[in-house]
Amino acid sequence: MQFSVTANRQRAFLAAVLVGLAMLSYFLHRTEIKVTFFGSHSESCIKQLAQTEEAFCHSFTGDRIGQRDQSALCTVWAQQRRKKQEMEDILTKLDQQMPSITFRDVKTTTSAKNSKATLLSHKDSYCVGDHLIVRLDLYDHLGKRKRYGGDFLRARVYSPGLKAGASGQVEDYKNGTYLVNFTLFWEGDVRVSILLIHPSEGVSAMWAARKKGYEKIAFTGKFLNGTSEVFTECGFNITTKEELCEYLDERDQEAFYCVKPKHVPCDAFIHLKSNNRPMSYLTPLEKSLFNRSNIGVEIPQTFGNIRVLSCNTLKFIDCHRAGLFKTHLVMDPERNTFVQWKKHGHPFVTKEFYSIKDDHYVPRAIDRVAGGESTAVVLTLGQHFRPFPMNIFVRRLLNVREAIQRLHLRSPGTRVIVKAENIREIYIDPERLGDVHGYPQNLVTRNIFRGLNIGFIDAWDMTTAYATNDVHPHNHVVWSQIVMLLTYIC
Ligand SMILES: *[C@@H]1O[C@H](CO)[C@@H](O)[C@H](O)[C@H]1NC(C)=O
Ligand SMILES: *[C@@H]1O[C@H](CO)[C@@H](O)[C@H](O)[C@H]1NC(C)=O
Ligand SMILES: *[C@@H]1O[C@H](CO)[C@@H](O)[C@H](O)[C@H]1NC(C)=O
Ligand SMILES: *[C@@H]1O[C@H](CO)[C@@H](O)[C@H](O)[C@H]1NC(C)=O
Ligand SMILES: *[C@@H]1O[C@H](CO)[C@@H](O)[C@H](O)[C@H]1NC(C)=O
After folding, report:
1. How far is it, in rounded angstroms, from Cα 224 to Cα 265?
2. What is the mean pLDDT of each run of 10 residues along the chain (490 residues)?
3. What per-residue string of b and e applies to 77-113 under the rule 16 or more CB within 10 Å gives b?
4. Cα dist. 146→137, 262, 406 in Å?
5. Is the CB of residue 244 below 6 angstroms from any atom belonging to ligand 2?
6. Ligand 4 center to residue 262 CA distance, Å?
7. Are strands 110-119 and 131-140 parallel, antiparallel or unpaired?
8. What is the per-residue pLDDT for 481?
9. DSSP state of 7
10. How far apart are CA 371 and CA 190, in angstroms?
């Protein structure tokens, strides 16, 4: 028996395998092969079937001398079968997801104008990060409630002034009710838009029509016949009695066809173009659903603009100390969050009096941190050291490094982040405060902290890039630094 497999001869091959199987089943230990062959067609069974067939095909051809090619074909054949099966599974699943509805009267299809959008749990204002839930109740043109889903909806929130927008997640309860879940990502006045792109009846009609054929597009192929050009019809599926040129990708099972021009070889096919054929697979009734006036109609709503606030839940706590440079504290008791800012110990250069009792050298402050997975220590040293000899700065950094090492010994989970100093005003008193002193400090900071398990925010680099030239950089630059900090912490 000879096994020659080509894509076109799969059926013959299958028959041959079946015959072979019947003959050889006597020799096979795994008698269930026979069961799976003729048994049920459940998904797992079919997968097993393809694998078993492949194994069988191999075992059979393997017995034969000089049949290595056949063995490779076995594998190709099994791969193609599996791909075909996966394709069918995907299409079957899509079929289940798309609506399947018949209707006789356009008046019984979904009407955007008659439908209602209601804001659930309405509030005067919302916080950034809140979810806005809108319930849709759909009605037909007669004012009767829809009892099934499948409508094609498009939902978004937007703020034209900010050029901001976000889509909403639509949940279809399959009974004429939908829930749209928006996330409020930004602060300001936000509008809601919910469009009925097509009623479910239109979606259903379109899905069915799409399966009906290949006729919507007319391909015209150009062949070269010597020095003249010949034009013929091409496409995926041509119904004709004339001879066809088949352009087949055997491996991937892709095929395209052209009517073969008389006395011109198929290889002389050089160019292709297409035109839309004035035809439709929809009935006139179905087509009327796709009138322009019926597409993308806004579902009316009464709730207008939504106010979204940033809602700092973090609260400031006044520590009742003198001056600007006191300890600053913010707290969020709901999320158990506590943020504290402290100045570092000597030198702190300012014309204002400040308490010398609250704050300590940074290494001492680190030594007081119990630490843990939910603790982060962020430190920056630099600007206030610029007027003094470098030995002060270097000694402090070495002490800080030892304190970090001690902290990690008792609490390896504590995050430590070092922020470099930033550049500042170019014309500031250079001998006292200039970046010319900041630069070697920046070098030394990188050197001393190298190799420690810490995060590093390169503020020197960032402010150089932004050219901020300000000892207190602008908010958007600080924001970039905070974003980097949060990526180390979260
Ligand atoms: C559809 O189902 C949802 C969820 O069960 C329910 O809240 C809603 O009221 C139902 N709508 C109709 C029209 O029965
Ligand atoms: C809205 O979506 C968010 C996640 O994106 C989810 O946590 C929340 O439960 C949803 N709300 C409703 C009412 O479905
Ligand atoms: C071409 O289309 C006809 C009718 O739509 C169909 O019966 C036939 O199986 C199709 N052939 C191919 C190769 O898809
Ligand atoms: C191609 O050219 C040959 C020779 O010039 C001619 O006989 C034939 O009819 C042409 N074929 C077509 C389809 O024009
Ligand atoms: C739009 O649809 C209606 C039926 O709903 C139909 O009577 C009318 O002719 C259509 N208009 C166009 C421009 O197709």
Report:
1. 9
2. 31 35 32 28 47 65 60 85 94 96 97 97 89 97 97 97 94 98 94 97 97 96 96 96 95 94 96 96 96 95 91 83 86 87 94 87 96 95 96 96 97 96 94 95 96 96 94 92 90
3. bbebbeeeeeeeeeeeeeeeebbebebeebebbbbbe
4. 8, 58, 68
5. no
6. 7
7. antiparallel
8. 94
9. G
10. 42
Ligand number with the minimum distance to the CA of 105: 5
Nearest residue to 411 (alpha-carbon basis) of 403, 420, 419: 403
Tokens 């590093």, residue located: 456
Name the pTM for this structure: 0.64
Q: Tokens representing 124?
A: 């005067």
| Unique residue bearing structure tokens 């949060």 | 486
Strands of 241-296 (E only): list them.
244-249, 254-259, 269-276
- Tokens standing for residue 251: 């491996």
Residue 401: name the closest of 425, 418, 376 by CA. Answer: 418
**Structure tokens that stand for 208 in this block:** 């069915």
180 Cα: distance to centroid of ligand 2 (angstroms): 9
Task: Name all domains of the chain by residue range, CATH numbers in brackets.
Answer: 7-97 (no CATH), 106-206+290-309 (2.60.40.10), 213-278 (no CATH), 342-489 (3.40.50.1110)
Residue 413 CB coordination number (10 Å): 10
- 431's enclosing H/E stretch is helix 430-433
Smallest-distance ligand from the CA of 202:
5
